[in-house]
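Section 5: illustrative case.
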């Protein structure tokens, strides 16, 4: 058998992980023939609950789950990891201002970035899911100067998948047949789902949809506010779909996309006028355990407005946490 890969997951007692951990243990990330060691991080007060989840993992008797580590110490959780999925974050509590939420999370991801820097494999692949995901990933990367910034990414894939499904329903096609969809910017209601380049079996998606007003006035806000709609309906935030998106993001990064576009939040190299280092949702193609941003796509007036709006929000978030980075 192959040597086991080590995958750290934070927020292990939470609701996303109640789905995510079972998918990873089942082989959905690295494949059915690859043994996996899960290294689970949560707060000290959640250790008992993580223990319960681990009992259930054991009770699945997954053939390739080689070992499970439970800890509240990031340096134990991130030791020698190949992949890290950072789900745990501070949720907004009653009366908490946005600025307080930003700085509470900045503190968490500063510590976790430093721990990754110290103990993770040098080519570790990191996905930040915990909100505000893009800015948390930015802080993680800034706090891990010895790791390649391009290996610390944020999750835009749920927005991407949400948009795929809505377009598929409207155009009467299968979501798997939609290619070249892009979701730009922040994982927040300002994100910009861009269908201008999308095709279905070679036909332009905008033609198949045939309703620009629906796209602008329904699709974009539906995807942007989907998280809130799920909370309203379920009384809890999206969890299984978020776990699924995290699996999709990491799976594609590890195994490649055969030329297909996916949306990933990645540290900017300056393309599209996004300041270097800002973690921004972009279309990307994955191959050989790496990804390339799709470059040189033209912008029109509408896309420029949407793009600038979501970029401004991220620059504001960066300014909100910059003092903490020192
Ligand atoms: P839960 O509140 O169910 O679970 C969070 C878990 O994280 C808890 O067990 C908590 O003890 C733990 N935790 C808190 N601080 C920690 C720290 N410093 N180190 C380790 N663990 C810590 O939340 P859940 O529904 O699982 O959502 C987790 C995060 O994902 C939230 O920030 C949420 O906003 C975010 N989401 C991001 C999405 C995205 O597309 N990027 C979509 C889904 C989700 O809303």
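Designed sequence:
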């Amino acid at each position: 058998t192959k040597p086991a890969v080590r995958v750290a997951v934070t927020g292990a007692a939470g609701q996303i992980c109640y789905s995510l951990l079972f998918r990873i243990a089942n082989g959905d990330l690295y494949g059915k023939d690859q043994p996996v060691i899960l290294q689970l991080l949560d707060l000290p007060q959640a250790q008992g609950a993580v223990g319960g989840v681990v009992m259930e993992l054991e009770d699945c008797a997954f053939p390739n789950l080689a070992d499970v580590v439970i800890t509240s110490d990031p340096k134990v959780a991130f030791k020698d990891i190949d992949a890290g999925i950072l789900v745990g974050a501070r949720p907004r509590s009653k009366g908490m201002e946005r600025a307080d939420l930003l700085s509470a999370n900045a503190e968490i991801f500063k510590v976790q970035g430093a721990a990754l820097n110290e103990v993770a494999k040098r080519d570790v692949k990191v996905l930040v899911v915990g909100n505000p995901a893009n800015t948390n990933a930015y802080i993680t990367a800034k706090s891990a100067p010895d790791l390649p910034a391009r290996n610390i990414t944020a999750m835009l894939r749920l927005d991407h998948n949400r948009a795929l499904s809505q377009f598929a329903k409207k155009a009467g096609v299968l979501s798997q047949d939609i290619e070249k969809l892009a979701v730009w910017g922040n994982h927040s209601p300002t994100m910009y789902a861009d269908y201008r380049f999308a095709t279905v079996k070679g036909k332009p998606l905008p033609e198949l949809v045939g309703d620009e007003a629906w796209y602008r006035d329904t699709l974009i806000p539906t995807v942007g506010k989907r998280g809130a709609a799920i909370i309203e309906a379920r009384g809890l935030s999206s969890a299984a779909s978020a776990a699924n998106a995290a699996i999709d993001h990491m799976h594609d990064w590890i195994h490649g996309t055969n030329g297909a576009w996916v949306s990933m939040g990645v540290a900017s190299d300056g393309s599209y006028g996004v300041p270097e280092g800002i973690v921004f949702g972009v279309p990307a193609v994955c191959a050989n355990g790496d990804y390339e941003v799709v470059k040189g796509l033209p912008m029109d007036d509408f896309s420029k407005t949407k793009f600038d709006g979501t970029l401004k929000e991220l620059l504001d978030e960066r300014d909100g946490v910059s003092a903490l980075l020192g």
